[in-house]
Specification:
The protein is of the alpha/beta class. The protein has helices at 35-49, 61-71, 92-110, 127-139, 156-172, 176-187, and strands spanning 6-15, 24-31, 81-86, 116-123, 144-150, 191-193.
Length: 194
């Protein structure tokens, strides 16, 4: 019996380029058929938390906390959220590509998925960078449908990656409240550092 080719989606956001190489973080969320239900769920969480469609940096701390608490409770996100923290480097594009490839590989291996095509949505991706990223990911063996640039306004899952990158950065910059949340989510297996 022939297996059906699975459609996957990888949402990507990054932060730290403003630190001139001191800190660089890439966050990803990899999902399959549940994409629509997760977008619907996360849209409701945005409203309930008061964060709405605002970026992490434009949200108040109270809204951020409530959003993270509500968004990352469900078990349906377990094993789908990955991030990597880099220090003392400006190799942003290459490191982003490695994180994307690793996240997709872990997601497909843990679910025994051989035949897939992934659409990769990267926040704020410029067209000239998109072409290089596509080529690099193909060289790493990622089976892609396409790589596209996205905007936080476009999808609750993309806004989730923005919030994850922001939360992890806050934790790395010694904001104790975010460090506690990040540690708890790691212990529960909701988010995984690569």
């Amino acid at each position: 019996m022939k297996k059906i080719k699975q459609k996957l989606y990888c949402y990507v956001d990054e932060t730290g380029q403003d630190t001139e190489g001191n800190l660089y973080i890439v966050a990803t969320v990899v999902v399959g058929d549940e994409r629509d239900s997760l977008n619907e769920f996360l849209g409701k969480v945005e409203v309930k938390s008061g964060k709405t469609r605002r970026k992490w940096t434009n949200s108040r701390h109270k809204e951020r906390h409530k959003y993270i608490e509500l968004a990352l409770i469900p078990k349906q996100l377990k094993g789908k959220i990955f991030y990597k923290i880099y220090k003392k480097t400006k190799e942003y594009e290459d490191l982003m590509v490695l994180v994307i490839a690793r996240a997709i590989n872990i997601y497909t291996e843990t679910r025994d998925i051989d035949d897939y095509r992934v659409t990769i949505i990267i926040d704020g991706l410029r067209d000239r960078v998109r072409k290089r990223v596509t080529k690099s990911l193909r060289q790493l063996g990622v089976k892609m449908r396409k790589v596209v640039g996205g905007r936080d306004e476009s999808s609750p899952l993309l806004r989730l990656t923005d919030s994850l990158a922001g939360m992890i950065r806050e934790a790395e910059e010694n904001r104790k409240d975010y460090k506690k949340i990040a540690d708890r989510l790691s212990e529960q297996g909701i988010v995984s550092e690569l």
